[in-house]
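ok here's Aspartate-semialdehyde dehydrogenase, seq below lol
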Amino acid sequence: MQVTASAHRVHLFSPLSSPALSLPSAKHCRCRYRNAAATTVRMGLREDGPSVAVVGVTGAVGQEFLRVLSDRDFPYRNIRLLASRRSAGKRLTFEDREYTIEELRPESFEGSTSLCSAPVGRLAKSSVRWLSNGDRSWWIIVRRFGWFRRCRWLSRRRSGKGALIANPNCSTIICLMAATPLHRHAKVVRMVVSTYQAASGAGAAAMEELLQQTHEVLDGKQPTCKIFKQQYAFNLFSHNAAVLSNGYNEEEMKLVKETRKIWNDMDVKVTATCIRVPVMRAHAESVNLQFEKPLDEDTARRILEGAAGVTVIDDRESNHFPTPLDVSNKDDVAVGRIRQDLSQDGNQGLDIFVCGDQIRKGAALNAIQIAEKLL
Ligand SMILES: N[C@@H](CC=O)C(=O)O
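and the structure came out like this:
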């Protein structure tokens, strides 16, 4: 396998494409790249690999990006670590080399083919605006999907080259990793999702806040609330995203809209309730599915056991089912509590419980799997 310049030129825009949802399992990918890397020494794959730019490298997702790139032997010709002005100049070691974090600027991408993970906020907006300065660029945007959709038009109009690919929101990725194989078998007509979302989804500062508040509460002190408006430790609350005029918050509407896009089915009915729970880095989701065709729980379990990127933990006897800790720092999402929904006739309903590492599969890994697919 040789990566050529033309292989980097991706003129496809797929705002919520699901390639990573259908990728081979992490195991397979890792082998593929191990083999590729071994071949590379002879074929110069790394020399011909893409220039990688990690935007927002100091954030939780940016850091995970580096870990995943390394774990998977992702081939790259060179790597640039970009962040806001605040972090520029800091030194960072990656794969035994020291790098200086650079401030993201319009010229950051000149002449390079870029893989990019953008964090929230102005940085993401600048990144996309400057895409036209890159040469043969494709970008994978991890966050800010809503805004990014408007940018698709921008980049196409301005540069006529490159590709912008939005990683779905983490709660959608984790949910659909489990629901999609079942959907392919029996077609989901309605899905009800209840999430239990970890601190990591709100960034590194929220993780720190959870830790700090836990210490404070245990010490009998008043918890410090900076990221969230209310006490987080030993508590849970409705997701911190903005609440819209229809009563849903933005996080819930992402599950609705992104599912429809990924499944290319504008008729599928989706409703969600998203809750922030005091867990560090993996989301859990209870998912109720209604199918067009009957699907019994044994068949569903077999389908999930064979699904890429999914591990089944479903031990009724010992009451062992997926937990956020089971999946923390893991590639696969875990699925359990696979059972027929008693409230639906004709084996047309199932309940499942899914857990997935929000930073890894919900963000960095999924984006890199998309990049691997493109390569
Ligand atoms: N929106 C999610 C993060 C996903 O990337 C959350 O708030 O947990």
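fwiw Residues 26-43 form the longest helix (18 residues). kinda neat tbh
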